[in-house]
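Q: What changes when adenosine-5'-diphosphate is included in the input?
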Amino acid sequence: MNLVLFGPPGAGKGTQAKILQERRGWPQLSTGEMLRHAIGTGTELGRKTKDLMDRGELVPDEVVIAIIAERVDEPDSAAGAVFDGFPRTIPQARALDSMLGQRGKRIALVIELMVRDDALIQRVEQRIREGNQRADDTPETLRHRLSVYYRNTAPLLDYYREQGKLAGVDGMAPIHEVTAAIGGLVDSCGNGAGAGNEGPNRQRKSVVGTG
Ligand code: ADP
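A: The predicted holo structure follows.
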């Protein structure tokens, strides 16, 4: 199954994507991690994107679309993938739909992790206290990333709602409860065993809780 984990920075998408990868075998395709890897290994791509990322700005659509296009053709994505931090703009979502469509696949489910802004700020402050903060993990940059999220990324909620694919999960709950809620959604949407071609379960639309 191909699914998108959606939500503001720090909502827990990466945590849940890793759990899905472990339990279901669908690789986590995180554009943020791919970009940080490019920066860490000193590639041309990393040099070009570091400054934008550190400031909490979006990297240009064509850059992230190209990285994802390469990645969806890897054999490990054949049975599906968990998109984490991608798409972040309407053009990215359209590009994803068309690249999957060309391969006879589709996004089956989009799960929004709903977390209040004040909790997101607290999470970043916690990471700073624990000393495992990223370059873009300062309270100021997080506020900026949040404003970018509401301006550029949140409109995707309507995009996926109109496609009947959107479901919401309470991202303020403990990690294992969020995992269980996601697992329930995945199981009720094409029993989780498909190759990414299953349509959205129309009855399941009633669980959509994102208003
Ligand atoms: P978070 O979800 O915590 O904001 P990510 O690791 O997903 O963190 O992304 C970190 C940064 O990488 C973003 O602020 C942005 O600069 C860049 N980035 C990641 N994914 C995308 C994307 N799909 N489009 C544009 N920029 C992206």
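Observations recorded in class: The pocket of adenosine-5'-diphosphate is lined by residues 9-10, 31-32, 35, 52-53, 56-59, 64, 85-86, 88, 92, 136, 145 (CB under 6 Å).
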